[in-house]
Structure formats: structure tokens, C-alpha cells
């Protein structure tokens, strides 16, 4: 993102005759600071438009698949922890506030406040990532993964042999935290004031990730019993009620012998009532399919072929089908998280510059542009949260 | 007859020649001064070298393809290699050559100069987009060296998710090239919006800038969608996310929608700048005001916007609902109107002009001829019924080559010959240039006209081998490709020779009125010392031919000393900026 | 006038023909629309080209001459040339959409054929367990194809019918057409000669050379028009249009199943040719996309997962039904599953045929 920022190089061709004075922060090809600021701002807005379109692809995918399989989306979104999502929303909103405030402080040249506010924004971003790490690792442990790797089994939601994902996610952050801490101590010892001033807030920022982890763990454990009991309850209920018919359908299914896909059922069941109407449909679809497959019925002559398709496996439940929700969930939140990481990178750069007191009344563009970017990242989350967590 | 200097009371304005210290090519020396340059002109030249190399590679692949198709059973490759060669030909030509050719190479050089600015708005972003282009190219080369790529440049799922070639490497390359393209577009939008000098209103901009602006809008709006599509494709291959892959209940047609939402507008990324170049060339070499400036300018924007609504015409046989298909067909026809308007306007510009049949003008005439064929055959494809027959046949191949090669490539060459004296300060051999234009025109038609018939007769595209009844036409096509290749080689030689023994170019060798002809050839590194005076870019009244020095000069009416006045305390343009 | 000019060229058997045979109800409509559009296009093209070269010659002047006029716009003229072509465009759109809608509305009671596309071949499903790679139709009978793909996107294209539709995995696409021109049957002597020659050479039937099918029918080409991988250009088959229903039924019956008297091996050999096996597996040891059948049975097979198996009946059966379960080392998992497409007897026949090709079989 830093490349979007107005060019601040000092004039490399200083010898040609400018007839007006050029301040150090004004790039040689601009005439006035206003022109430079306007260019940067327009550039940032255009960049944000490309970002919106970038995400729009995934929003389209979300809309299409939600339209195709509403039941999958309804069922699966119950696996997302609304409390954690809400906390993250709050954290991001607060970080937007501090960011906007930071822009104001850059304009008024209040450097102490500016540094504090940028550091706060950064800490919020870290807390967000911490909470996200809890959410992700928990789902990975249960095998709630994109279609190709989806391995959730309602009978044993927690895989015993799963690696400790949380630990692996925390590792790089812990290293960063230790790194900054050591660097901070050494700079204090050396008496490098500038480095100390930069690293103090950064150490706190790096530590904030673990605040997020802690927050997430507490909320998750408080919530666990409730959300899980509903999940496993209804699953068991269906399973016991329809055991016999399930066996029948499995026996009939040409798919069942193929790839060991015996564990259908999964999430969509959650949406289905205890009545076995869903399974009846499934059985019917399976019959139709195997008939078609063995060649007893070649084509459905009675109706249009489209009708045959509709009758065939619309609600034929396989894990891959349920996996689509998690595919989209990981793509959207994952790419959003990458944007947060990029934002963190740029904010750290801003923090260093604010300690260096680079900004002034005429030159506060970078803070403003990064602020715009940060608000956009925030805004995208504001859309993601209800779409993925809330709508059921 | 000598028209030069015969206007009484006029003062001749000509910037003369740059000193070695001013000349952007020589003002600093060493490889590093090029690699780390922030000067838009040097970046433009580096792009020019890059895209030419990519074009040479893609062109050689094309020749190999044509050579292979001399015989119904193929002469050179196995099926597998043939598939890889046509894929790489397509991918290299689209992503590495056509998309960056005019906007990035010529555009980078020209946009700030035509605008009267010192540089683009974000010079460092500009350089980084060039390096992104290099990275993207490296990824493509790596894909080629690893296990090739055989998906076709469209990466259609589920073929691309199941083949064992280096799809991931190539898609990441295309993703990176997408960012290069976005940054270039973003830079131009901001430059044109905020860096116009006083007096350069929107409707005093040269049409090339309008075309570039429209192109940039598409680049910025469409490319991110390609980015996310390719990322999802990579995710589909690595994690099986089940969005595009039917094996996991995804939908391949959704992929096509996503892909063409970018790639159809990308067609206009390729052709719009060509329109801009042709508008410039036709007007300058006819020495006549461009006809219907506003219609041409608006039609560029109209094409850019309508171009976003017609992607479905690539999928008329894919199984969209009938209603969707019909709507896309209707929208497709609307986009052809602005292109037709431009052709008529160019002809009207030539009418009663004073035409010099220079090399650029020969290329421009060739462009109008070829692009008209390309455009008109689009009607067969836009019409639903005939498209059912012609879709995915050689008719389509011929159609888009007429637009992309006969259109964009020929315009690119025309533009290159037009601005070559400005870029490198040397005149090339005019007869050699015209000869190359003739060869390209001849070879191109011989290559692709037979393909229309092949398509009408039902020869499907992307076939490594074919039925013997198509052999005659394929042979004709291959011979044409050879002539085309020779023509392009001649063009290259003519241009390179000019660097060695070309005559020094004057500031205004063609008699253009746009701003780039107001600075020396080649321009100084700062372009303009102070913001130039801006007039109508197509007003040739004050441009006169100076027989003696073989140059065009601007003759200013004699100035009378104005009554002395107190100068205003503020710079004149200060109030223009809010 | 223009269509007439084209039809002068239209000796369809010649190399320079403009169109392939016109053999369906669509082809007439599509061709006339094509000619009409071409006519309009040529009209405008001639105007543009005459103006282009005319102006270039007429107004060519020496350097330094001023242009005769500097008119910069004429709104009325510009509006005129924006609007007038648009009228033609509207016409093209309407006619195109009309014919297209015809192509999409299948008449009631059409003759139905199922189509399965796979890498790299076609299987036409005539019902009652009859499958064959060739598409056989009845003249003047509306025919509906219901198409599915078992791997990647293909596209069924019959140039003579001017009809094309993509075959997309994960969904059923359909198309219909009504053949109007039956394909002739060649004389028995000609057929016998060709059959003999083919048998003597021990090669596969050469459609390009003989221009008729092994059953002696002339044919139209059927292509795959959507790129589908290595042998995309070989993914062709033929369309035969029968004159009478009896003839068609007789043909279908001929291929419906193994007759009482036919041995498993010989029927297996037919299936091998007919069901697309020969596209990837050779019978003579030649290296193709898939392993050869020669000496396959009873041999030790190294698998991609490192294990070794003996190619016995069970292994072959599994490989036909679930080809992605055990992949022989050195090959790609590209074979589509034949589950539901081959009856048990068919599979037995194929296995018997593979057995017969092996020296290892007891």
C-alpha cells in the first residue's frame, strides 16, 4: 500500500529551474502540496474501488451458492460463534474511530496523541487477529474445512489426532513479540531514543495478539456447551430415528461403496426436523439415480429432462456439499485477514513516521490514505459479519 | 512549394534539439540509472523492450502452430505439445503483450508529455508496476519450464483443476500481471485527473488521452475481478473449495461468468488505446482537424462502460438460460455502434484533408481496413442463431485476430512509427516502413481470411489435427503467416537501423499540434520547463512546413507589446486548485 | 443476389465450399441469416473501403499543403451514421433471437438420445442398454439430445446441422434439431472392399479415407468444439441419418446387446471399439494415454501408491467401475467411471476380451 502514497522523494533533478520553492515533502513533478494531496487521495479512492471489486467476486460467489443451497448456508452458519464475531466487529469499529482521530491529530500536529492513536489502532487489529485465530483453530480441529478436506463427523466432532493448530498460529506472533521485546530492551540499553520511542508501542501491539487469544478462549469456552449441545443433540436425534432407513439408503446407493463417503448427514441434518421427510426424499433421489445408472431407466420420458435433474440428487447429502459454505467462509475471512495484515504493515510504517514527526498541516496525506484503507477493511467486515454469522 | 516562413509578421517557434544533458536518454548513464529510474519515458522504453520480446516469443509460437497445421495430421508436435504451444501463444500474447503494449509502453511515454506534465502522478508506483510485469513474465517462463500449461489462456474449469500442468504458477503470473495493469491504470486516471496544466480542459485533451483514460477505467474496474477469480481457481486446485469444480458440486459455468466479466472488458483494454492512436495518426497525417472530436471521445467512454455488460456473449452455447442469452445478445449489438461511429469519423477526417502517405498513415489505413472486417464479422457472432454454428470455430479465431492483430497490433506499429522520432530522436527509412506496412497487410489477410471460411465450414478451433478437406485453406493460412512474420521482421529492422544511421529528427517531423511535438526530440528529462501553452490539439492553422530544414514549425502571430499592467500577486493557476 | 453468388461456390464436396452440407431445418435458417448479415456487412465494408482508399488517393498532397477544409464536426451527419447502422443491428438481433428460440424449444414427442461425453469420445445412449459412439438419427424426425459429461467441458457440434451445445459436467444440457437430408448407404461391394482392406491391414476403420461408416453409411462429422485436453482434436464421431425408421431400428438392434451365439471375447472386442476404450488403451502394446491391454491380464501391476497388485478379474472390474481407486504407476487418473453404463455381461465380455489378449491368462 505504501506505493500508493504520494511520492516523497527529494527532487532527484534538483538543477532544473523551478521558479517556486519546493518543500522537502513535495515531489518534484507536483506544483503545489494541494495537487500532491489531491492526487494521492484520488489514487487511494481508485485503489479502494479495485479492492471493493476484488471482494465483489466473492460476494457474488456467496450470493450464487446461497441461492442454490440455502439449507446448507443456514445449517452451517450455526457453527460460527456469533459472540466472537460480534466482539471482533466491536474491536474493528473502535479501531476505525481511533484511526479517524489519528488523521485529525496529524493535521493538528499533536504527535504524542498521533502515536498513541496509531498504536491503539494497531492493537485492535492484533486483537482481531487473535480472536480470529481462536475461531479458525477450533474449526480446523473439528474438520470444518473447505469441500476437498472437509472431515467433520457429528459423532466425534473433535479429532483426537489433530495437530494443535492454535499453537502453530501463535508461534510466529510469539516470535514477533519476543523479537520486538528484545529489540526494545537492547535499544533502551544502547540509549537509542528514537528506536525506544518506536518500539515501546510496538511491543504493546505485538502483545495485543495474545489479549485477543485470551479473550477468544474465554468467550469460546463460555459458549461452547450451549452451541454444541444443540448441534449434537439434533444430530443424534435424527440418526437414531432414521437408522433403518439410512441403512437402506446406503445399501441402495451406488456411491456408498465408492470412496468411503459413508458419513453423509452432517450439517444439513441440523436444519432438518426430526421427521424423516428429508431422508425419504433422499432415498427417492437415490433410487432414481441408481435406476438411471444401471440403465433400467435411460431417460425420463414422462417429463422434461430438467425435471429429472431436479428430482435427482438436489438434496443428496455429501460432505463436499456442506463444505461449500466453509470454502466461502475461509476465502472471504481469509482474504479479509490478509488485508488486515497488510494494514498492520502500513500502520507500523506510519507509527515510525509519526514518531519521527514527519507530518504537518500541509503534509498529512499518508495518514489520511491509510485511514481510508483501514475504513474500507473495516467496512468489508461489517458486511461479512451479518452475511456469514447472523443471517440464518 | 515552400509554405514555410512565408507568413508575414509571424514568429517561428521550434524547440530545436536537446543537449546531451537534457536528453532523457543520455542525462544519466549506467544500467542502474535505467533500472531504478522514476522517469516515465525511460519506464516506457523499458516496457517497449519487454513487450517486444514477449511479442517475439508469442509470434514464434504462432508461426510454429501454423507450421504444424500445414498437414492434416500435424507436422511438428504431438497433440500434447500442440496444446501447450497454443496455450502459451494465447497467454503470452494476451497477458504479456497486448494488454501492456499500448497503455504501458506507448502510454507511459506519451501520457504525461501529451498532458504537459512533468511525470505521472506516482512515479514509484509506475516503476513497481513495470517490475510486477517482469515478475509475472518470470512466472510464465517458470510455468513453461516446469511442466508447461495446456489449459488454453482461459483456464476453464474443470479442465484447469484436473490437468497436471503448472496451472498454479501461470495463474499466479497472470494475477501479478493483473496488479501491474491495475497500477498503470490507476496512475493514468490520477495523472489525467489532477495533473493537467492550466488551459488543458477535458475537451482539449488529445483523443489518445481520452482513450487511455477509458482504458484505465476498465483496467481498474475489471482486473480485480480477474484477480479474485484466479485466486479462487488456485484455491480450487489446492483445497478443492467446490466453487468451480463440479466434482465438489461447484459450477464450471460460474467460472466462465467470473472469467469473462474481466476478460471481455479486457478486449477493450486492448482495442481502445488503438482507437486513440489511430485518431492521432489520421488527424496529424491528414493535416486536418479530427472530425467529431466529442463523438469519438464519448464513444471511448461508452465502449468502456458498455463493455462491462456483454461478457455473456462468450457463453452463448454454454447453457445459460434463454432469457439471459438473448439479453446478452442485445447488449452485444449496442457495443458495436460506438466502434462504427469511430470508423466513420476517421474517414470524414481524411475527407478533404492533405494526406501524407507516411508509414504511420499506411498503418492507420491498414488498421481501418482490417478493423472494419473484424468489427463486421462480429455481427455474425453477436447474432444468436449464426453464433450457434460459428462459436468455437476458426471463424471466431479469425474474428478476434482481425480485431487484436489487425486492430491493436497494427495500431501499435503505426503508433510506434509515429512516435519513434519523438522517442529516440531519429528518422527511419520511410520506404522501408511503408514496405513493412504492405507486407503486414498482405500477410495478415492471407493468414486470416481463409480462416473465416474454415470456420463457416465447421472447423473447430484448438485442433491439433484436422480432417483432410480443410487442408487447402490451412495451407494458404500458413503461407500468409510466413509473409506476416517477414513483414514484422522488416518493421523491426527498419526501426533498429534508424537508431544507427537515421537522420536526426526535428521536434515536429509530421506536423502534429499536440503538446508532445512542442518539446524536443527526444524530450528533455523534465519534459517541459514550465507548463506549456495549451490550445486545440487538432488545430493545424499555425503549423507550417519548413522546406529548408525539413521540419514543421509552429508560427505564432506577431505579438504586440501589451500595456504594462500590475501582475497579480498569485500565480495564475492558483485559483484553479480548490 | 448475394446468396446466389455464394451458392455458385457451394459445391459442398469441394475444398472451397463456403458451408458444409445443409442437413437440418436450422441450417437453412442459419445460412440465410448468415448471408443476409454478410450482405449488409459487405455493403458497409465497400462504402468504408471506397472512401478509405478513395480519400487516400484523392487527397494525397505534398508536404506543407494545407487541407482544403478544417470542418471539425457536423452533428446531423454524425447522428445519421450512428442511427442508421443501428437499425440493421436491431434487425439482426431480432432474427437471430427468433431462430435461437426455435433452437431452444424442443417439439413434443421428439426422438430422444442420451449423450455422454468423456475424454476423448462420445457414447450415445439409445435406450434399452444400447450404447454406441455413432449418432444415428431418422430423417425429418425432431431429435432431442440430453447431454452430460463425466469429466471436463465438451461441446457437441454438428456443422451440417449448424447446431452446437456445450456439455458441462455437473449439469444436463440439451439440444435438438431435425435432420432433413438422409445420408446414403454405399453399395455392398464398396463396403466389403473397405472392410476387407481394413481387416488385412489390421488397422482401425479410417473414416476420412472411406467417407462411410463400418456399416456402410455416409455420414456428417460430429466434433467436440470445446477444448478438452490432449486428444481434443480426435474427439470426433459421425452422424448418420437414416431414411426409414425400420432401417434405424435394425441398426439399433444390431448393437443392442450380445446375441446368444456370440462369444464373450468377440463381443468384448466390439465393446472395446465402440465404448471408447480404444481411445486410450491399445490392444497391441502401443503406448497410449492408458495402459495397453496386451499381456495385461495376470501381470503384476505397480500402482501409484506404491503397492503391487495382480491384474485379475476383480482388479479389472474395479478399474472399469472405479478407475480412480487404483492407478497404475506412470499413468494419470483421467479415465471416467463406466459405472451404470456397462451391464455385468458387458463387463464380463470386456474382461474376457482383455484375457484373450494376454499370454499370462490360463
TrEMBL record, chain A:
The chain crosses the membrane at residues 42-65, 85-103, 115-134, 165-185, 197-219, 327-352, 372-391. Its main location: membrane. InterPro entries: Cyt_c/ubiquinol_Oxase_su3, Cyt_c_oxidase-like_su3, Cyt_c_oxidase_su3-like_sf, Cyt_c_oxidase_su3_a-hlx. Keywords: Membrane, Oxidoreductase, Transmembrane, Transmembrane helix. PROSITE patterns: COX3 (PS50253). Residues 234-245 have a biased composition (Basic and acidic residues). Residues 222-260 are annotated as: Disordered. It holds the Pfam family COX3. It is a multi-pass membrane protein. One of its GO terms (biological process) is aerobic electron transport chain. It is found in: Membrane. GO terms for molecular function: cytochrome-c oxidase activity; oxidoreductase activity. Belongs to the cytochrome c oxidase subunit 3 family. This is Cytochrome c oxidase subunit 3. It comes from Novipirellula herctigrandis.
From TrEMBL, chain B:
It is an enzyme of class 7 (translocase). GO terms for cellular component: plasma membrane. It comes from the Bacteria. Keywords: Cell membrane, Copper, Electron transport, Heme, Iron, Membrane, Metal-binding, Oxidoreductase, Respiratory chain, Translocase, Transmembrane, Transmembrane helix, Transport. The keyword Nucleus does not apply. Pathway: Energy metabolism; oxidative phosphorylation. Residues 554-563 have a biased composition (Basic and acidic residues). Pfam families: COX1 (PF00115). Residues 554-578 are annotated as: Disordered. GO terms for biological process: electron transport coupled proton transport; oxidative phosphorylation; respiratory electron transport chain. Its EC number is 7.1.1.9. InterPro entries: Cyt_c_oxase-like_su1_dom, Cyt_c_oxase-like_su1_sf, Cyt_C_Oxase_1, Cyt_c_Oxase_su1_BS, Cyt_c_oxidase_su1_bac. Residues 28-535 form the Cytochrome oxidase subunit I profile domain. It is a multi-pass membrane protein. It catalyses: 4 Fe(II)-[cytochrome c] + O2 + 8 H(+)(in) = 4 Fe(III)-[cytochrome c] + 2 H2O + 4 H(+)(out). It is found in: Cell membrane; Membrane. The chain crosses the membrane at residues 45-65, 85-110, 130-149, 169-195, 207-235, 259-283, 295-314, 326-348, 360-379, 399-420, 432-453, 480-500. One of its GO terms (molecular function) is cytochrome-c oxidase activity. Cytochrome c oxidase is the component of the respiratory chain that catalyzes the reduction of oxygen to water. Subunits 1-3 form the functional core of the enzyme complex. CO I is the catalytic subunit of the enzyme. Electrons originating in cytochrome c are transferred via the copper A center of subunit 2 and heme A of subunit 1 to the bimetallic center formed by heme A3 and copper B. Belongs to the heme-copper respiratory oxidase family. This is Cytochrome c oxidase subunit 1. It comes from Novipirellula herctigrandis.
TrEMBL record, chain C:
Its EC number is 7.1.1.9. Gene3D superfamilies: 1.10.287.90, Cupredoxins - blue copper proteins (2.60.40.420), Cytochrome c-like domain (1.10.760.10). Signal peptide: none annotated. GO terms for biological process: ATP synthesis coupled electron transport. Keywords: Copper, Electron transport, Heme, Iron, Membrane, Metal-binding, Oxidoreductase, Respiratory chain, Translocase, Transmembrane, Transmembrane helix, Transport. Subunits I and II form the functional core of the enzyme complex. Electrons originating in cytochrome c are transferred via heme a and Cu(A) to the binuclear center formed by heme a3 and Cu(B). Pfam families: COX2 (PF00116), COX2_TM (PF02790), Cytochrom_C (PF00034). Belongs to the cytochrome c oxidase subunit 2 family. Its cofactor is Cu cation. This is Cytochrome c oxidase subunit 2. It is found in: Cell membrane; Membrane. It is a multi-pass membrane protein. GO terms for cellular component: plasma membrane. It catalyses: 4 Fe(II)-[cytochrome c] + O2 + 8 H(+)(in) = 4 Fe(III)-[cytochrome c] + 2 H2O + 4 H(+)(out). InterPro entries: CcO_II, CcO_II-like_C, Cupredoxin, Cyt_c-like_dom, Cyt_c-like_dom_sf, Cyt_C_IC, Cyt_c_oxidase_su2_TM_dom, Cyt_c_oxidase_su2_TM_sf. Its main location: membrane. Residues 263-358 form the Cytochrome c domain. It comes from Novipirellula herctigrandis. GO terms for molecular function: copper ion binding; cytochrome-c oxidase activity; heme binding; iron ion binding; oxidoreductase activity. Residues 108-254 form the Cytochrome oxidase subunit II copper A binding domain.
